[in-house]
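Q: Predict the assembly, please.
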Amino acid sequence: MDTLINELETIVGKKGVLLGEDVAQRSVDWFTKASCEAMAIIRPQNTEQLSQVMAACHAAKQAVVTHGGLTGVVHGAVASPNELVISLELMNQIESIDPVGSTMQVQAGATLQSVQEAADEIDLQFPLDLGARGSCTIGGNIATNAGGIRVIRYGMMRQQVLGLEAVLSDGTVVSSMNTMLKNNAGYDLKQLFIGSEGTLGIVTRAVLRLQPKMPSEQTALVAVPSFDALTRLLQFASRELANSLSAFEALWNNHYALMTSEATKHAEILAGDSPFYAIIETLGSNEEKDAEAFAAVLEKALEEELITDAVLANSSTQRQGIWDIREDIETLVYELNPMFSFDISLPIAHMDEYVTTLEEKLEAQWPGVAKIVVFGHLGDGNLHIMITVRDPSPHSRRAVEEIVYGTLTRYSGSISAEHGVGLEKRDYLSLSRTPEEIALMKRMKLALDPKGLLNPGKILA
Amino acid sequence: MDTLINELETIVGKKGVLLGEDVAQRSVDWFTKASCEAMAIIRPQNTEQLSQVMAACHAAKQAVVTHGGLTGVVHGAVASPNELVISLELMNQIESIDPVGSTMQVQAGATLQSVQEAADEIDLQFPLDLGARGSCTIGGNIATNAGGIRVIRYGMMRQQVLGLEAVLSDGTVVSSMNTMLKNNAGYDLKQLFIGSEGTLGIVTRAVLRLQPKMPSEQTALVAVPSFDALTRLLQFASRELANSLSAFEALWNNHYALMTSEATKHAEILAGDSPFYAIIETLGSNEEKDAEAFAAVLEKALEEELITDAVLANSSTQRQGIWDIREDIETLVYELNPMFSFDISLPIAHMDEYVTTLEEKLEAQWPGVAKIVVFGHLGDGNLHIMITVRDPSPHSRRAVEEIVYGTLTRYSGSISAEHGVGLEKRDYLSLSRTPEEIALMKRMKLALDPKGLLNPGKILA
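A: Predicted assembly structure:
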């Protein structure tokens, strides 16, 4: 393999190749902090270099694993000692911005936050947002079709991408850098690369759609007396705040109570005895009118007994305090250690029953030990579920997975709403997808990567 | 072939097969009214029948052309005497509606209007909207990734589809009827079938996303003094009306003047001497507040000289009168007969220069004869361009196409924003897409339809 590494070094230069300790010190999984085992990390500086790298790997039948910001949680970045890592970290430029067309052209290694800030500078916004904004990259957001907290208003990453450029497994560069909102001239090739977790091509650049900036942000934390009230509140908020509703996050009591307990550092903004809480956020252009409209909607929700209490943030500090409860995953990881994390979606109407069933099954199997915490993007049908049975063994993990995923099939839910499949959920894919769907995925994989060099074993066995 | 037709008749029954005059009387093109030349029209009643039909066609290497509502304008429905037509017209049921999840499950042959009405009945909306709503079908909307007048707010058809079911060329049924907003469990297979014009599979059913109903609709026609003012007006409206802006349609003077001339039946709502007009529409939930906010924005636009005059519709009749000017394509077809129709997109900043160049080139080649009419979805970068040189010959068509598409390449525009490619634009595909993109499209076509049986020759030669 030294021959190949030498060949790649002539393409990307000395600083483009990391070996030994430089490889091992990288963590490939945000939760587990597992070390990178790849034989080397190759860091192209531009698309042309990556194209040559892949052509050489293709000739040598060398498998590669692509790395973005390494904030994924489904072992999508895991690489074995006989694999090479391709890291886009040196391709992190924002190449151009078009304020009239509201588009931005970036390299795949640019961080989400740098893109958000560049949009902000010209008085526009890039609406995708998630906790890992400072580290995660646009390429990773594309490869995993990232979701986050504003999907209800702006959609997932798929909707933010107008065009992209990708390098195929044989080094072919497919440049599909469309800048227009509408383009029906032939197949929409970018869709192949969005959400396929680097298994069909390596995304190198993208044209992103920007949105008008929304200077007025209204945020409230509300206490909700029942799950039925929670779903009615969602419908009510969707209707009354229709155009401006940008987030509707639900927190089960097990989440809120833990996050505001003495052990953790968050203020108990509302009394902790409510079965459900929700964070509701709107984005608009008129602070005064929006605040008034938002307060009126909350008042009406109180009158109609959809909520029992509410706090409307009246400063950015208060706003941050509310969001911190939701976004402080570190505390959850610490409190629930060793933790198994799930990211599922199912029809909203079934969520309460689903979670109750999980609680019962966990308690039956690990009485007095199992702990479950539930929160998530209710408006998107997406729940994050954190479970500990105080035992990290593969055996326990499998037992918990079987409860979580096994129960999910009753409701035709998805084993992955936004985190992707990676290696972690691969063996459960058939619970969410039919044999015909999986056969078609394999057909696509074979058509685009016949030698199976791109992220082998991820998503599909 | 009689053997195959007999075999298919045993699958779909007598009423499922149309022959002779029943075939010829169908028009396959909305503009030209060209007659259908297929050997037969096969009308399955359900997915299982279609699966059997395709299995039989696959065994017999029989090519098929899929028909929806036959409102396409790029010869996508043209079928030759050695081809069979598959029509989804007997599969037009709305199967179920979920008001909590805001989803609707339909068969592909359901008309867009029937879906809109069914959503309306449960106080939700299906936001895709276009002039052909009464005839076009959901399957056709999916196959062509239909756009229409509300893309700026809700996106194209691609964004309205949560899941779908398709029959592949060998009869395999791929059921990917996802009902959730978020599902990253493996490749998003539905993207393969959306916008690929029936060349990769036949869409049979779909899960559609519904949106909150917007009872308050504000519509204005405004006169705009220059193209620069028009683009600034778009940016202004996008910012000020951000959340509620649902349509921003531009009419060049050549369009408005023709549509409000004595020969046509539309009232001249504003004086006809302005170089540009725009129809601006918002959707909201509070009639009184929305009307007030909309009027204030228009007033500010007047003050800032972005517009010189405005009429705000204060009844649904007035609103319809404004939209009629935009949607009355029949009058254009009549007035510009014989007409060549184009549907292009390009960066907004270049539109004025592009249209001026077309006018000059047309005038140079057909002095005093050529007539061009321009209007479209400015906010989406999409213009519809209608041209007559009073000669329908293929020679003249080609000469006009070369001017329209040839000039477009300067601006990296697209030969098709929303109508698709079909047969009509196939020979120009390479002007909008790179050789690598077209090669990848062919690779996908080969992977999904190796015998080339589905809509052969459409999009790709």
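Chain A touches chain B through 93 residues (CB under 8 Å). The radius of gyration of chain A is 23 Å.
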